[in-house]
Every structure is written in C-alpha cells, then in structure tokens.
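User: Okay, second chain of the day. Same drill as before: sequence in, structure tokens out.
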Amino acid sequence: MVIKVYLASSSGSTAIKKKQQDVVGFLEALKIDYSQLDIASNEENRQWMRENVPGEMKPTSGIPLPPQIFNEQMYCGDYETFFNAKEDNAVYEFLGLTPPPGSKRKEIQEAEQNGDTHPAELEEDAPVETDAQEEKEEDDEPEDEEEDESRKVAEEENQDEGDEDKGEDNHLVSEDEEELQKLEEEEQGSEEAED
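Assistant: Same drill. Structure tokens below.
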C-alpha cells in the first residue's frame, strides 16, 4: 500500500505550502512510503483528487485544497484530520496502516487484544523523577518565594500610585478628567467673580 499525498508544487499560499511540508516531513520522519502527486502541473491528478474526496469532507467552496491524503484509492483526509491524528498519536490508523513493531500504538493494540493492561496506562508518559531532579526542584523553591515577594512589593507600589489618582469621592480619576475639573472650577470661579 502506498500513501498518496496530493499537493500543489506551485501554490501561492504560504499556509498551503507549510501544511504540505508538515505532512511530507512527518511521513518521512516515520519512514512511511508515500508518493507526491502534483495537482498544479498535472490536470489528471487534480481531477482525480477532486472527484475522490468525499462530499462531506469537501469545503463549502466545493473545491478541496491540498494537501489531500489517500491510501491507494481510500481517502484518509486533509491536513486538519491529519493534524488531529498526529496530535492523538494515531497517524497509522489515520493512514490505514498497521503500526510498526515497537511503536507505542502497536503496544496499546496488543495490550487491548490480550487484555493485559488498560490502554491509558500505556499512553501515560509519566517521567520518573531522579534524585538530581528533586534536588533541583528544592533549590528552585527559594527563588519562587523571592519572586512572590518582589511581585507583592510591585503590586503594593502600583496600588499606592493608583491611590494618588483617586479623587475626593474615591473613584479613579484620569489626567484628562482632572484637567476638565480644573477648567470647570476656573470657569465657575470667573462666573462668580463677574456676578
């Protein structure tokens, strides 16, 4: 089975280029056999891709954009579904391939079939702390306390500065409002002097 990735070699969209590179790079990193089929230079590839993307997977415009991924004739998905499978560590299932021996997914499948272990136990990658890591964490704690103390001092200073900006009725007063109040007071004073 060969994975077919339909892409556009001459796309003007940087987003499409990045998505295509992400898919191809990931397939290469996993050493999965695939072929790239260019829809920009080959009209047959473009037509085949458009006709074989299922209706429910087509965007509202009706024209699916690259990259589109197939396993021979079977549609696997577009970049979004590929990305989700990658995040869920389920790329082999997404591509319709059997995970290679020694992969995390293969171990989970075998454990589920044998009923040995709950799959969640295998999926957890809980790091084991060493004595050196514990000592480092203990060394970090005083720094955290110092940071907390300096943050509290800064907050108090900001609060003190904020108190200076409050008017007589204890509401926050901006500089513009202060100027407006002064002008109004001056106008009232000049009107009273005229009377």
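Strands lie at 3-7, 34-38, 68-71, 74-78.

User: Thanks, on to the next one.
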